Amino acid sequence: MVKKIFYFLFLIFWLETISLFALLFLSKRLPNVVFDPKNYNFNLKSSKKNFSDPLGWGSEKLKESTTIPTKECRVHMFGDSFISFNPYKLVEYQNEFISPENLISRKTGCKIYNYGVDGYGSDQAFLKFKDQIKKNNILPNDVVILSHLTENILRNSTRNLRLLYPDSSAASTSLKPKLILKNGELSVISIPESLSKREVAEINQKGVTTKTKKEENSLFISNAVKGSPSEVKFPYTLNLVKAFFSWHLVPRFHGEEKWYPFYRESSIHYIVTKKILKEFHTTSIKNGYRSITLDLPLANDFNKFFKSNQNNFPLTKYLKSINLNHHSFGHYLAKYHPVVLKNKCIFYDGSNDGGDVCKFHFNQKGYILMINFISELINNFSNETKLKTLK
User: Fold this and answer.
1) Pick from 65, 81, 85: nearest CA to 73
2) Closest alpha carbon to 231 in 31, 11, 56
3) What is the DSSP letter of 139?
């Protein structure tokens, strides 16, 4: 009997030891699956700039075209790093290196204002659009564009971008405002105006503090709900098992991206995202702007949402069903450049982002196609104006 107890305890010891090392490995490779405070090293001094910007970061970021417009039209573009054309300040076009803003200006004849900011969700991009309205920087009859990368729905669902992209080398928090629905209308949960040294330390230890926990997505808070990240703590075996039920991993078991479940009809994050894009058009019409919304694809979206003759991206289907001027670049690529359905990586290159060649941003060829796509949509407004004049 004593021998059996010894063997049992010996087995438990080895299970716990192996599980501990497995959790430590996962916490480095998949920090959204296993929370480890070592991935968070924020300090108060570096984070103060984050607190002072009502949008978190990038409130004042703007890139303008410098070519002389040939028409009396102005275009304002809002979105994330894709709209900012990251990582390219210049693209090669017809044996010339030119800024994306100048190339769109050349193709449309319009003055281009690019407000795109790296790391933004479509929620922050929408709030920046509203801020520019307050500053009277957008005039009646201007064209306004809001983009939504398919993955943006994750960013729309959090108050802390670092819960999505942990970075042990980052000294500053990446807190952001979050839009929620209150009585059917969009309401802003703002960034705290200040945090104490103790509160920053608590974010390092837990991912949240009292001032940032309200309306935070519980899936991103360690051990908050089923599917949230496990911790590296005893019992290690139990926490390792829990890790495999993470929101970050479960979709991968079905060959899907981690953000796909967020587009379910019942998902509050999808409901809010639909409201954001709808409100962008409503606000634009109210102010006399000509509005366009776009959805932009990531490589794995092809043959999932975007096929040669089908567009199964739920956001596109919804906005089109209520007759809003929404367009899908993913569907455009699948339809007119079907090579992407056979080689999903052909228009992407994430090597400059620390990823592989198939991850994240477009390569120059992809961005040129996106520039052509956006320019065509802008020119459609000019053609509509001409038709109305002829009538």
Assistant:
1) 65
2) 31
3) -
Whether the model pTM is above 0.85: yes
What are phi and psi for residue 282, nearest 5 degrees?
A: -60, -45
| Measured distance CA(83)–CA(385) in Å, rounded | 26
Q: What share of the chain is helix, strand, coil (3-state, %, to 5)?
A: 45, 15, 40
- Beta strands across the sheet bearing 143-149: 63-64, 111-114, 74-78, 143-149, 290-296, 326-328
- Stretch (H or E) spanning 366: helix 364-390
Q: Who has greater pLDDT, 162 or 354? A: 162
C-alpha–C-alpha distance, residues 205 and 35, integer Å: 9
Nearest to 148 by CA among 312, 38, 266, 276: 276
Q: Please report, to the nearest 10 degrees, the dihedral formed by the alpha carbons of residues 246, 251, 257, 260 taken in order.
A: -100
Q: Residue 26 to residues 29, 150, 205, 266: CA-CA distances in angstroms?
A: 5, 26, 17, 30
Reference 100, options 287, 321, 366; nearest CA is: 366
| Per-residue tokens: 104 | 């769109």
Please say whether the beta carbons of 122 and 277 come within 8 A: yes
CB atoms within 10 A of CB 289: 22
DSSP string of 186-197, one letter each residue:
EEEEPPPS---H
Residue with tokens 């210049």: 90
Judge whether 31 and 166 are in contact, CB under 8 Å.
yes
Q: What's the confidence (pLDDT) of residue 387?
A: 34
- How does pLDDT run across 190-245, given as a tens digit for each residue? 999 999 999 999 999 999 999 999 999 999 999 999 999 999 999 999 999 999 99
